[in-house]
Structures are given as structure tokens and as C-alpha cells.
Amino acid sequence: MPSYRTLWWGGLFSLMSVQMQFLLRGLLAWDLTEREGALGLTYLCFGVALLIATPIGGVATDRLSKRTIILVSQAVLMTAAVVMGVLIMAGLVQFWMLLVAAVLQGLAFAFFGPARVALASEYVGRDQLGNAIALTMLSMNGTRIFAPSLAGILAGVALFGLGGVYLISGFISSVSFVLLLRLPPSESAPSTGRNPFREIADGVTYVFRRPPLRRLIISSFFVIMFGFNYIAFYPAMVEGVFGLDEAWVGYISSASAIGAVVVSIPLAGHADSPRAKSAMVIGGLLFGLGVIGFGLSPSFWVAAGVIVIVGAATTVFQSLSNTLALALTDDSHQGRVQSLMMLSFAGFGIAAAPLGLLAEWIGLRSAIVIMGSVATVAVAAYAMFDRNAAVIDSSPDTEPQDGGGGDTARPAPTNAGPGVSPSFSR
Predict the structure, then answer these.
(1) Which sign does the torsion angle of CA 365, 369, 371, 372 carry?
(2) Predicted local confidence at residue 406, as pLDDT
(3) How many domains are there within the chain?
(4) DSSP assignment of 332-380, as one string?
(5) How far lies 371's CA from each of 48, 296, 309, in Å?
(6) pTM score, two decimals?
(7) Among 208, 201, 210, which Cα is nearest to 411's?
(8) Which of 413, 426, 321, 337 is nearest to 127 (CA)?
(9) Those residues with Cβ within 8 angstroms of residue 2's Cβ, 6 or more apart along the chain or in another chain
(10) 130 lies in a domain?
């Protein structure tokens, strides 16, 4: 599948640049303010932009050329990195400029994310969908092993500094853009003539009428919105609590990526397994408990060991939740469903600001423990409600309800292919 390989490599370089900027954004915010609230505010701006634009990005993915959407989004990401690098090196950077860059990146991701996943599904087909998503997660987590560490190390070198590393990130992003230019043209779906906001409402209704999909999206939203915010506070934890320098922020991010890559390789061959849902729940529970352990860690090395487990659990949960969501979705709604899945990352950004203020009020460690606790409860609630629904569906007295009221209301997609397990319909 040459087209998927091109998409994968283009995504690899894009994610490498993004991972570097993810760390740089936190370092710059901390250097300019030395406040946890400022760290949260940068992610709030990113999250609000993502929240507003993601539903529109989902509609665009279902109606426009996915290739064009990806290229335009990548161009915005590249430009934002280069401009920030120039401003920092010229000594003109101010905190509000960092917030503007976060908004632009949020807008770009709102379109890039749904289009990339939907295009991958189009290239490989549903029979290899789980493998493709696992490989996508492998590229994301693989770059996390060395990209943040590289960014942190170079940022501490006078020759480069934060500005120079931003420019390096912009160059890597330009490599991604050139690779993505090689993607074959993708066709647009026939226009429905409907207002985009009605298309968004149709996507929400589509999910609401499918309880298995609804449960999956809601639980994922809470897990990512609260649990993933531990990443936003790496600089405060490493520099403020453990008293280490910028390079160590990159190291602990790499620890998470090591765990993620280790689990990604076997996961790529088993993502379509009938036991995928159970594995997803286990991964989600381990993730939530791991975040709690991170908040309670007495030293950097204990924290790094816990983060390796957290990284592995994160990959299992994200890969399998996306696979399950796509397997439960018809081709006509892939973009909009993916946009709803991505809204959890908007929630992640929005929650970062109040969580940052909470950390200033009750202490960073206590705030991180709360984040992990919310994620753990969300996964446990999903498992409980999903099991109860499965018991009801298996009852001989249960009649399917017309209109999508029950889990059996909608048959599995006819083009699902042999690689999608029937258990996904639960």
C-alpha cells in the first residue's frame, strides 16, 4: 500500500515536529512566567481552538478532499513553528504570541486529525483498520522517545536555545509537507447541499442513537480531558518539584514513549482481536492508576518508571478506542465521528487552565492525583455500563428498538471485512 506508506512517513515527520513543539511550548511558558497557571493557559487556548474547529474539520473530512485538508493543515503547523522561532531569536517574543501560536496549532489539528485517520482507513480498508491505527500510534509514540529529549537538550545549548529548536521543528515540519505532496489526489464526497452546522448536528445525532459508540466517546472524553493533563505539567513537576533542568523534562517524556513503543509493536498485530475491548479497558485502568502514581512519586527516577507504564497503557487505550470507534461507524460518518473523538483533546486543553490554577491552590501532586482518579473512574464506569448493556442485549426477552435506542438497533457495516470482530458491535 504505497499511499498508506507515504501518509505514514509524512505523519511521522509531522508528529516529530509536533512533539518537539509540545515540549517547547511548556518550556517557553514556564520561562516567561514560572507559573503553573500559565502552562495551563497555553493549553486552554489550544483546546478552545480545537473545540470550535474540530466539528467543522469532521464535516470537511466527509465532504472535501482529505489530501487538500492535510496539506493546508500541515502548512499552518509549519508556519507557526517558523514564526515562533524567528520571534524568539529576535528577542521579540511575548507570552501572548505563544497563545496565538497555540490557537493556530489547535485550528490546524482540528482538520488534520480527522482527515488523516479517515484517509488511512480509505487506503487500507476495514479489514486492516486496527493494524493501521496501531502503526499510526507507533509513529506518534516513536517520535516521543527522542523528539522531546532532543528539543530539551538543544534548548539548553546556547547555540540553539528555544528559538533555534523552534526553527529546527519548522524544518522537520516542511519535510512532512513535501512527503505529503506525494499523496494521490483524493475524491470529495458528493455535496449534500446541507448547512455545515446541520452536518455537525447529524454527526452528533448519529452517535447519540448508537449506545456502544456513545459510551465509547463519552468515556474517552473524560479519560483524555482529565487524565492526559499530567503531560502539561511535566515542566512544573520536573523543574519545580524535583529541581532538575530542562533536559530532564525531555527525558521523562521519552520514558513515556519507550513504554508506548514497546507495547505498540505487538499491538499492531492484535488490534483487531475479539478481545480488543477488554484490553482497552485494562489499558485505561492502568493509565488512570499510573497517573495517580506519578503524582505520588517521591523522586524523579520513581516517576520515570511509573511513566513508562503510563505510556504503554496510553497507547493501548488510544489505539483500541479509535479502532472500536471506526469499526462502529459507517464510511459516510467517519470524519464526523473522528472529530467527536478528537474533542476530548479540546477538553484536555480547556481543562489544563483550571487544573493549573487548582495545582497552585492545593499543590501540583494533589492535582495530578485528581486527574488520574477521574480517568480511572471514567474507564470503570464505561466497563460497568457496557457490561450491563451486553447482559440486557443477551436476554431472550429483549426486543431491538427501532431508531437506535439499543445496542442491537444497527447492524454492523456491510463492508466491515473479516478483520473487524463481531464483538465490536457491543
Answers:
(1) positive
(2) 42
(3) 1
(4) GGHHHHHHHHHHHHHHHHHHHHHHHHHHHHH-HHHHHHHHHHHHHHHHH
(5) 19, 12, 16
(6) 0.65
(7) 210
(8) 413
(9) none
(10) yes
Which three-class secondary structure state does DSSP give residue 403? coil
Q: Is residue 199 part of a domain?
A: no
- Span 20-37, pLDDT tens digits: 887 788 788 878 887 767
Positive or negative, the CA dihedral 169, 171, 172, 177 is positive
User: Which residue range forms the structural domain that includes residue 232?
Assistant: 2-183+206-395+402-425
DSSP string, 187-228: PPPPP----HHHHHHHHHHHHHT-HHHHHHHHHHHHIIIIIG
Residue 399 backbone dihedrals phi, psi, to 5 degrees: -105, 135
Q: Which residue has the cell 517521591?
A: 298
DSSP conformation letters of 381-400: HHHHHHHHHHHHHHSTT--P
Confidence of residue 192 (pLDDT cuts 50, 70, 90): low
392-417 pLDDT, tens digit per residue, is: 655 555 444 444 444 433 433 433 33
